[in-house]
């Protein structure tokens, strides 16, 4: 009788452990992350860690590259410690004009379109093997990608196209 009671107790403990492990798992795919500069080059380019969110992994990968270029143009990007070329710890955006996104909306819609010109100003040169990370849910996939953005070339292009003043 003692033996059967101990076996039942162990079976109940094992069942509780299995059921607890099968609980809902938390994912970080729904969190918004900001891009971060993780390296600088002497040619005017920056290595940026960016995130993209889309329906599948390939679209999320492309969206992360698009986000890196977008952030260099429009947003301040935090610079990781030890790589700061400025004392503020932030990389300033190329376009600091108020409402530049709406003023040049047609230009940037074409620039950031699928297969658009933004792809000329980013590369995967600094990407390490297996460094791209994916978080997947039923609805979306989030990709974390290392991208090199050619900021100086991008600035020259925006000046050439009349978006940035000389």
Question: How would you summarize this macromolecular structure in one to three sentences?
Answer:
The chain has 166 residues and is of the alpha+beta class.
Secondary structure topology:
Blueprint (H helix, E strand, L loop, with lengths): L1 H20 L14 E5 L4 E10 L2 H18 L2 E3 L10 E2 L8 H4 L1 H7 L10 E2 L9 E4 L4 E10 H10 L6
Parallel strand pairs: 1-3
Antiparallel strand pairs: 1-2, 2-7, 3-4, 5-7, 6-7
Overall description:
By secondary structure, the protein is of the alpha+beta class. It has 5 helices and 7 strands, in the order H-E-E-H-E-E-H-H-E-E-E-H. 36% of the residues lie in helices and 22% in strands. It has one domain (33-160). The termini are far apart.
Order of H and E elements: HEEHEEHHEEEH
**DSSP helical segment count:** 5
Total domain units:
1
Percent of residues in helices comes to 25-40%
Class derived from helix and strand content: alpha+beta
- DSSP strand (E) fraction? 15-25%
Shape: elongated
- Give the uncertain stretches in residue-range form: none
State mean pLDDT (0 to 100 scale). Answer: 83
The largest sheet is: 7 strands, mixed
Measure the end-to-end span: 91 Å
Number of strands: 7
| Radius of gyration over C-alpha positions, nearest whole angstrom | 23 Å
């Amino acid at each position: 009788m003692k033996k059967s009671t101990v076996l039942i107790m162990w079976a109940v403990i094992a069942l509780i452990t299995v059921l607890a492990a099968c609980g809902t798992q938390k994912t970080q795919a729904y969190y918004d992350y900001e891009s971060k500069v993780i390296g600088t080059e002497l040619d005017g380019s920056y290595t940026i860690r960016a995130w993209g969110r889309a329906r599948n992994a390939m679209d999320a990968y492309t969206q992360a590259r698009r986000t890196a270029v977008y952030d260099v143009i429009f947003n301040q990007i935090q610079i990781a410690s030890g790589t700061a070329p400025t004392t503020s710890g932030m990389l300033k955006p190329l376009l600091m004009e108020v409402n530049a996104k709406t003023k040049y909306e047609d230009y940037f819609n074409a620039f950031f379109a699928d297969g658009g010109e933004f792809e000329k100003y980013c590369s995967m040169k600094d990407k390490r093997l297996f460094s791209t990370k994916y978080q997947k849910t039923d609805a979306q996939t989030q990709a974390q990608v290392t991208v090199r953005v050619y900021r100086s070339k991008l600035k020259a292009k925006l000046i050439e196209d009349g978006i940035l003043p000389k």
